[in-house]
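Data availability (excerpt). The following record was deposited with the supplementary files.
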Amino acid sequence: MLLRKTNVREKLNLERLKHSRSETEILSQVHDILREVDANHDRIAQNIAKGKHTPVNNFDFDLLETSRIFHIDEIKNICINYRLRFLDSKYFKGEIPVEALSKIKSLENEHDLELKGFKIIAPSKLFKLEDKDDPLLFAPIANNYFYLIHQWGNDLHPLRKALMWPFKNIVNLTALVLAISYLVTLLVPNGLFSKSDSAVEFWIIYFFMFKCIASVVIFYGFALGKNFNPAIWNSKYFNV
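Predicted structure:
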């Protein structure tokens, strides 16, 4: 006689009968658990949305992952290199994923505290700036150290650092304008402005191209209120 295969679902039902719990009681307990989870998520979401300044969260340092601890100088360098902002979470206009809320709740349970003072690294377009890809959510620890809680969204474009290099400082921007002016000058046909083709003519055209391109860059910068990366990485204002 062949042995009958074990139906795990049936075994589970039998196990539940041993505890003599009605379906109503089970549903009530599950409902209470889910309601508590929703309440915690709502509270955490409110803390993120309010983004009140909290210099210190009293973490249990023995439970922290050192790979997730970053100093403000490290954060600043990344923001400058990739033209990102590091601002209070209340300015963030993107959606905070459920995974981030769950991680915050898990940390709160582990460290027996309520986390506050959240900050986020993200491109300017993801913040509600006053005057108006890849967010990272942090909580402050102490002495300008921050703990990385969660990262979501798409990775930054691999060329973003190179594309944002001219905006690091005036020297980089000037070097770019000089290089573009030189390339544009090379495209000017020989003898276009005079019959003789000389080095003097080339450099005169080059100086003219430089002035034109530099004027456009300056006008663009002033008209749109643009500034260099070190001036905006932690600014809540659009025109800085």
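Summary of structural features: The chain has a mean pLDDT of 76.
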